[in-house]
Amino acid sequence: MTPIFSLYTRLTDTLERADWLLPTLARLLFAAIFLMYFWVSGLTKLGDGFGGIFSPSTGAYVQMFPRMMEALGYDTDQFNMLQKLIVLFGTWAEFILPALVVLGLFTRLAALGMIGFIAVQSLTDLYGHGGWADAKVLGAWFDRFPDGIIMDQRALWVFLLLVLVFKGAGPLSLDRALTPRR
């Protein structure tokens, strides 16, 4: 039995020395799976023309404040300045935070921002869009179905981002390139 454990220890010691691999793969997977998801979602929130980046579409308000939009007859002029800023900054966050994660710039902070974004997105899906009433949206842990949007899928999203919070961006990143050598 000792030769088996020796072989196992040699192999796992090699993996432990490859500390650069985990954050690099986490950023690669984030780019492959989520970059376009968030960017396309952000594009649906932009207003018309070049100035649309400063004037979110009505759809942005519907996605972020669904019940309030319905109550106000879909009139965005009735929103106060704070609500308008939330929609504006939320729209920008869908572009900026994923780009920072993929580039590996301010990665830990950007990953924390993405975790907060996903939390707000999930709460909006549950409260604003009525996800509590749909078991497929909420899902459940320790059941046999891995497809619940909130409990299953978004938990994995957050875990991927937590790797970046704890490990950083890895060696192939702007964080590493811009950090002075010690």
Automatic annotation (TrEMBL):
PANTHER family: INNER MEMBRANE PROTEIN YPHA-RELATED, OXIDOREDUCTASE CATD-RELATED
Chain ranges passing through the membrane: 20-40, 85-106, 155-174
Lineage of origin: Bacteria, Pseudomonadati, Pseudomonadota, Alphaproteobacteria, Rhodobacterales
Organism annotation: Sulfitobacter undariae
InterPro entries associated with the record: DoxX, DoxX-like_oxidoreductase
Membrane topology: Multi-pass membrane protein
Family, as annotated: Belongs to the DoxX family.
Subcellular localization: Cell membrane
Stretch forming the signal peptide: none
One Pfam family from the record: DoxX
Protein name as catalogued: Putative oxidoreductase
Chief location bin: membrane
Keyword DNA-binding applies: no
One Gene Ontology term, aspect cellular component: plasma membrane
UniProt superkingdom: Bacteria
Keyword line: Cell membrane, Membrane, Transmembrane, Transmembrane helix
